[in-house]
Write a sequence for this structure.
């Protein structure tokens, strides 16, 4: 991955006819992001517990990113500011969606890493997600001790993962996870 010299936006494949770039998601991307989530996760996505945390929150935050080629959104990630046990300073990662024709090209990892970098710079202390430890472990996520973070619905405790930006930060986040007002 290289960076565009004029904008410092990561360029994933600058040898392609139309390079793939990663950038902040904007309101103009919402229709394409929604379609990407629909293709990747299907209609049952709204029943997922992590979606329940995000209900009623703005669809974009300052941490959401997309990978695009030309005018096509190939991957998108959402980060939602949350509080855990009433303490702010954390983000919920997800969903991540990658166009089925562009799987296994590093696009999901690229948008996740861009959001994580921005979160780290913003002063966030922690990113939490519900996901596969094999995939997210490669990115630096680790299991949360069972029962430490509670979601408003059923979640396999082994799938609750976190990445600390401040050593020991996870220990200070205990309790129910809820969407917050967007402040980190």
């Amino acid at each position: 991955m290289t960076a565009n010299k004029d904008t410092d936006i990561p360029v994933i494949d600058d040898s392609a006819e139309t390079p793939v770039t990663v950038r902040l998601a904007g309101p103009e991307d919402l229709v394409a992001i929604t379609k990407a989530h629909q293709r990747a996760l299907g209609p049952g996505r709204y029943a997922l517990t992590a979606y329940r945390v995000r209900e009623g929150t703005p669809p974009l935050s300052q941490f959401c990113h997309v990978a695009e080629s030309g005018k096509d959104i190939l991957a998108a990630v959402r980060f939602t500011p949350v509080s855990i046990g009433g303490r702010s300073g954390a983000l919920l990662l997800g969903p991540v969606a990658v166009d089925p024709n562009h799987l296994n090209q590093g696009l999901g990892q690229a948008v996740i890493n861009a959001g994580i970098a921005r979160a780290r710079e913003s002063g966030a202390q922690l990113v939490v997600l519900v996901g596969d430890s094999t995939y997210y472990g490669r990115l630096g996520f680790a299991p949360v001790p069972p029962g430490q973070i509670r979601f408003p619905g059923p979640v396999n405790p082994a799938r609750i993962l976190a990445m600390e930006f401040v050593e020991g930060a996870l220990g200070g986040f205990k309790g129910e996870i809820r969407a917050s007002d967007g402040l980190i």
Observations:
- The radius of gyration is 16 Å.
- Residues 1-8 have pLDDT under 50 and may be disordered.
- The first strand starts at residue 2 and ends at 3.
- DSSP finds four helices and eleven strands in the chain.
